[in-house]
Amino acid sequence: xxxxxxxxxxxxxxxxxxxxxxxxxxxxxxxxxxxxxxxxxxxxxxxxxxxxxxxxxxxxxxxxxxxxxxxxxxxxxxxxxxxxxxxxxxxxxxxxxxxxxxxxxxxxxxxxxxxxxxxxxxxxxxxxxxxxxxxxxxxxxxxxxxxxxxxxxxxxxxxxxxxxxxxxxxxxxxxxxxxxxxxxxxxxxxxxxxxxxxxxxxxxxxxxxxxxxxxxxxxxxxxxxxxxxxxxxxxxxxxxxxxxxxxxxxxxxxxxxxxxxxxxxxxxxxxxxxxxxxxxxxxxxxxxxxxxxxxxxxxxxxxxxxxxxxxxxxxxxxxxxxxxxxxxxxxxxxxxxxxxxx
Length: 342
Hints:
The protein has 342 residues and is α/β, with parallel strands linked by helices. Helices cover 43% and strands 15% of the residues.
């Protein structure tokens, strides 16, 4: 037996949507979901047709006026969520995905679930950090418009390399987040990795950089995924020209299993002594761990080692993950090194 929970947001406002349509969609949604009226009865009350009522209800769901959730005490995802909470101390949302689903479809389903979850997490006057990558790019394409007052989205790490500035790629992701919530966006116009750690030290003394670093230090929420060299949906940091062959070899030697915002870590969550981290522009893990809410979004068992390492590092408070990966995670599988992922 499934329990349906429906939430009607009576304070929804979207300046880009016709106000009359919003009011009619809100009325139809309230009558249908809260007062349990039939479509025919709603059509009579609104003086319109049943098909128009159907379109209004569709608009209400698509625009975020209505948020429908399904919770079943007997469902496997719920049991997995409880196990993940017990084992890793995270609030987990397990997304049901057929085992035979393709990697892209799996990512899209997880991204949709994460986008819905963000509507609960993003609040007025928040500073939200976003790490660019294939997963957060997918999430950004499914965000539901919900303007909030005074929110700011800040880029977590630089995106330039020897082939491109990376500004277009990272700014598109950040802009989608900011647009969906009517918020401001703060870019981080530096390379993903400096050639010399001394250059990073010098840059971090610049006032323009200190401003971004101060915003990162005051974040209320971060949204990220884990990078993995072996992910079937390629992690951008490993496929976008950011790492040379000798750097990949050094990561393998150091026992690296993945990264978060271009900061690398081992299976036990440790990140010290990894030379490339001295040149990386992502925030130190101590900075991330001080953020009250930290949403990690992961799709696919090929990211299992990197996800386990991130959880061991204590980087996530909230997790959105597909069912197959959640099962493997609770079964204790997934320990491995950088070499295992290649």
